[in-house]
Structures are given as C-alpha cells and as structure tokens.
Amino acid sequence: MSDGSDANDANDAGERSAATRLAVAERAARAGGALAVERFRRDVDVVANPGSINAVTRTDRDVQRRVVDVVRESFPDDAVVGEEADAGTAVPDEGPVWVVDPIDGTNNFVRGLRTWGTSVAAVVDGAPVAAVNHFPALDDTYAVGPGGVTRNGRAVAVRTEDDPARCTVAPTVWWDADDREAFAAAARAVVERFGDMRRTGSTQATLSRVAAGGLDGAFTDVTPHPWDSVAGAFAVERAGGVVTDLDGEDWRWAPDVHGLVAASEAAHAEVLDAARELLAVR
Ligand SMILES: O=P(O)(O)OC[C@H]1O[C@](O)(COP(=O)(O)O)[C@@H](O)[C@@H]1O
Ligand SMILES: [Mg+2]
C-alpha cells in the first residue's frame, strides 16, 4: 500500500519546476523591461500602425527577442506564444509554452505614460504555473508562483470589500471602432453599479492591480489575446480572486472563450452581473 510519498514526490517536483519557471520568467521579464525602459521617453520608434491602438514600436520587437533569448537559455525547446513575430498566437492544450507580451500598454509607452510592462507566463498543459508582470517605469514587479503573488517581493492579495459603492472596477481589453455600443454599455454598467471606474491602457496592469487590491474587478466581453491576459488572470486567481468567463465558468484562455471577468471573491458576482449587461447589446 502506498504511503502517499509518490504523490508527495510528484507534488514537490511540480513545485520545483514551477519555481524554476518563475525564476526564468522573472529574469526574462526584467531583461526585456530593462531594454524598454532605456528607450522610454527617449527613443520611441513606431514601426507599424502609427496613431492606432495597435501601434507597434521597434522596441516591442526587440524586447520580445530579448525575452525569448533568456527563456531559451533554460528551456531551449519550449514553444513561445507572443504578440510580435516568430511566435504562436494560441496557447496549446498540451506541453510547455511561454506566453510573452514584450510591452503591454504600447500606447502608453508611445505617449510617455508609465503604465506599460513586460509580461511572461509559463504554461504547462494549458494551465499557468508561473508568471511575472514587470512594469519598469512604475518600479512594480508582480510575481505569481507556487507561493502566491508578490509585488516587489511582498505578498499581495485581492480586496475584501463587498459593498459595490466602495468598489472600483475597470472595463478592459478595448472594443473596436464598430463595437462602441458594447464599450459604452460596459462603462455604463460600471458607473451605475460601482463607486468608481478606471482604465489603465494595459490589461496586464489592470489585472495585476486587481490581484493586489488596487482595483476590485475588471471585465470584458471580448476574447482577449493570451499575452494580454494569461499572466494577470493567473495573478488574480492566485491572489484569492475569482476569474470566469461571461457564463461564470472558470476561465482558461481559449480562442473562443467568451469574455473575462476577474475580481475579488467579494466583488465577483456583481462584476459578473455588470459584464452580463453587455449580452443585451450583442
Ligand atoms: O485596460 P485598458 O485600458 O482597456 O487597456 C486595454 C489595452 O491594453 C492592452 O492590453 C494593450 O496591449 P498592447 O499594448 O500589448 O497592444 C490591450 O488589451 C488593450 O488595447
Ligand atoms: Mg498586450
């Protein structure tokens, strides 16, 4: 009869591997962020989609290369899903993959606003095991792993406020120009239900702030890109929050997942109700 030690050994090995991946994610995000912050407000070169929400800078591309180089030093054979070229765009259900957004919040980066960061998540068999969202111009680094969530090395957790009038919620991810009724409905749902609203220009920053209690919740009814959402959603969940789709089912990135509702446990039901108001305008 087993004394359970095999299962314990497997758990230990899993945690060790998550801890290794977390260390690599942090090294990679810091290396990428260091390159970006050197150029911030000095050398910002938009190379695609100037003036648009989808602007791309030379730095986005260079940072992704640097992040991937650091990951490959330790995990040369793992797949990469990333916002810029030479990477996949969908998270596979099997195997290890690194989900990379070199600069989440490129528009803020271009305009000299500080809320942008480098996001690196390690996913194994479809589930995140470690992630880092590094915001060098803010000096904030969120790390998510077996031990929970830290910001600059100190543990953080979601807020416990359950009075919507004292909650601040963010409609996030962005709605295209022909989708402004949904955007307006999202904003209306927030201002009519909650104390206040925020929009940061970076979904990873928004989700990181939910994880750390700076915001009570965030939601969208669109399917986010994995690089905009996986690390931050994992942070919210590991910080004690709840992350679902628009049907209230556990959220996991998939190409057809319907929306994202990430909130503290105390606020999630109300944030989900707000998000579901968007069903009426579709
Ligand atoms: O939280 P907000 O203000 O809706 O910001 C959302 C924007 O942030 C982003 O995460 C920015 O992503 P990129 O800068 O990597 O393109 C997008 O999802 C979206 O355009
Ligand atoms: Mg992004």
From TrEMBL:
Keyword match Magnesium: yes
InterPro entries reported for this sequence: Inositol_monoP_metal-BS, Inositol_monophosphatase-like
Enzyme class name: hydrolase
Record-listed E.C. numbers: 3.1.3.11
Binding site for Mg(2+): 83, 101, 103-104, 228
GO MF assignments: fructose 1,6-bisphosphate 1-phosphatase activity; metal ion binding
Entries under Pfam families matching the protein: Inositol_P
Keywords linked to the UniProt accession: Carbohydrate metabolism, Hydrolase, Magnesium, Metal-binding
Family note: Belongs to the inositol monophosphatase superfamily. FBPase class 4 family.
Designated name of the protein: fructose-bisphosphatase
Organism: Halomarina ordinaria
